[in-house]
DNA sequence: CCAGCAAATGCAATCGATTGCGCTAATATA
DNA sequence: TATATTAGCGCAATCGATTGCATTTGCTGG
């Protein structure tokens, strides 16, 4: 139970009567090693069940083959799906991923960056916390030349590669769809305006209204925490104001469920009287009554794209290319909650 | 942009005129270093912005401070919440977690174990894939003395510490609740019978029936993949068989949503005509119409407990204790789908 | 005043793999 | 046949931190 037979390249070197250097080169398929020797090494390695020590290798050439990921919280379908995408892509290339959560806490985010740096990750991908309005903690990352990728919750205040969906276009589409369905007094649920994705969605929403010749009414734009309770509160607020809205486009699925609940509570018919559209395509949107229209953010693809970007960055190492910004198309998913014209 | 000023203990040693040994000891708060020197070292370290290289340290003393986690898929609330629990607990103790997914694929699981071993993780926590019926790939882990913890999807065929919820008791409770509500023909949705948790839930289900004096009817137990479509199929199957069930206790939330959809499609009233209970407390169960009763598996707590178990194992290293099996209490959450007596 | 001991630090090996440089022998070129 | 090449491999340093053992310095007690 405690047999610590550490098998190293020296063991296999001894086994076949060469030096560790040769074994190392053979294992790495170095051109200056004869095919015969390579074969012997490989066989001996297999025979004595040799496992390379990545830590030693990492120390030597400064590459840990580790990618650090920071998300606000992992137990949210959107983020865990992104992580899934990254993991898939990275694993296939012999990289492992390390997860950290910021809990939308600025301080925790700073600490985590530090921890990842300590762990000597080869790259960092992050989705910014909601309260992150200063970016000095990324300076160290950039300065060390460690590839950094922002996904979804990004910022333009830093010259960093990023992967986002087309928030503007999808918000535009969603709003347009509501207009097509005959809704004319469309409210919008949004979050703190410091975050770009919410700004973009608001922009798409108002642009769609404008293009349709509908005046933008700022009283119909309600800020909240974008959670279930936030959606409930925002809905009650709208009702109390008596502004007579007939649809809601929410920048979050959670908030739109809150709205759905509040409206059903007072017998408002969805979608006949009020149309609803959320954002993110969380799994539960399919299961509500009625099912909620929403925007699919293609989380897994976003993860894969982020990972791909990382590998591009390390491929042409040295040549610092201009900032790359990949925008993925999102998908408006139309379900019952916004379909009153059949 | 390419300033690679690698700062090591040697730099700080030179700075204050001592050797690296002293710096190392000072940094690790070794008792044989004078307080004065320690102070100098700490200050110098801060001054030149020294960051310890964990990789070098890991190589030296064989500890990577990394915990490997294997889950079938990360983008399932239950698993991502467990990961969250583990990450929280581990992070607070200066350990990082590495995520891998098995996709319920046996081969991938084997490869992943190997990859984690390569990465020299200090411990491994896994939730077995659905198709894993052989456990030889864990031998290497055990033999190397690397702490291994199974959570949720475990097996007794290996002497490994595990953390589970009381599947039997919670299934018993759920079934009992249905009986209390007056349902008498309770069907059960389950999965492949090789997995212990499903066996346990089935056992709890049948025991509850027995204790209530209701005969167990195996025709009411339906196997499926436990996904949405599986639940739909199982429901249609039951309906076609014309067995006259009046409730379903499903070992999965996804399958019970499938049942809900099928039943609503043919105007069956929930919970008046048929009562439903799922398992896992996935977020969407709260949002369906009616809201689904389910069993809360306390995922975050399970993650924390698993992590705690790991730290116990490395604490008294060497002394191999007997196998520890922690069983957490689960929580029956009663919502509308099973409440017809008010 | 000196042996004796403890406190504080230095020395050097080590963890395992990698790699620049050098050496040897074989093949090629003149 | 003598020299220039090149293939194939060994030597030894290196990555950065850790640690057993040795050494130095300072202090105590006789």
TrEMBL record, chains A, B:
This protein's record includes keyword Glycoprotein: no
Single GO molecular function: transcription cis-regulatory region binding
The protein's name: Transcriptional regulator, LacI family
Keyword Membrane assigned: no
InterPro entries: HTH_LacI, Lambda_DNA-bd_dom_sf, Peripla_BP/Lac1_sug-bd_dom, Peripla_BP_I
Residues in HTH lacI-type domain copies: 7-61
Pfam name, any one: Peripla_BP_1
Superkingdom, natural source: Bacteria
Entries under Gene3D superfamilies matching the protein: 3.40.50.2300, lambda repressor-like DNA-binding domains (1.10.260.40)
Keyword field: DNA-binding, Transcription, Transcription regulation
Family matches, as PANTHER family: HTH-TYPE TRANSCRIPTIONAL REGULATOR GALS (PTHR30146:SF109), LACI-RELATED TRANSCRIPTIONAL REPRESSOR (PTHR30146)
Native species: Cyclobacterium xiamenense
């Amino acid at each position: 139970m405690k047999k610590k037979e550490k098998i190293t390249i020296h063991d296999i070197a001894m086994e076949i009567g060469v030096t560790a250097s040769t074994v190392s080169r053979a294992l790495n398929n170095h051109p200056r090693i004869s095919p015969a020797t390579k074969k012997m090494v490989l066989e001996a390695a297999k025979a004595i069940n040799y496992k390379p020590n990545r830590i030693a290798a990492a120390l030597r050439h400064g590459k840990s083959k580790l990618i650090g990921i920071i998300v606000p919280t992992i137990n949210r379908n959107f983020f865990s799906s992104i992580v899934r995408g990254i993991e898939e892509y990275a694993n296939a290339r012999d990289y492992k991923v390390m997860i950290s959560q910021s809990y939308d806490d600025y301080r925790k985010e700073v600490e985590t960056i530090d921890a990842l740096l300590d762990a000597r990750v080869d790259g960092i991908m992050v989705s910014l916390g909601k309260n992150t309005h200063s970016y000095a903690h990324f300076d160290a990352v950039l300065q060390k030349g460690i590839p950094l990728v922002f996904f979804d919750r990004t910022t333009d205040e830093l010259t960093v590669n990023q992967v986002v969906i087309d928030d503007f276009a999808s918000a535009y589409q969603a709003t347009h769809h509501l207009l097509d369905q005959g809704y004319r007094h469309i409210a919008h649920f949004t979050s703190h305006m410091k975050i770009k994705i919410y700004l973009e969605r608001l922009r798409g929403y108002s642009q769609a209204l404008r293009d349709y010749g509908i005046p933008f009414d700022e009283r119909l734009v309600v800020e909240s925490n974008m959670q279930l309770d936030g959606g409930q509160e925002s809905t009650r607020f709208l009702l109390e104001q008596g502004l007579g809205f007939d649809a809601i486009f929410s920048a979050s699925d959670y908030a739109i469920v809150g709205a759905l609940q509040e409206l059903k509570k007072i017998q408002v018919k969805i979608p006949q009287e009020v149309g609803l559209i959320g954002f993110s395509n969380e799994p539960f949107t399919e299961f509500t009554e009625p099912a909620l229209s929403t925007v699919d953010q293609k989380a897994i693809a976003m993860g894969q794209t982020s990972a791909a970007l990382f590998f591009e960055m390390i491929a042409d190492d040295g040549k610092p290319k201009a900032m790359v910004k990949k925008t993925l198309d999102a998908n408006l998913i139309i379900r019952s909650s916004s379909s009153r014209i059949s």
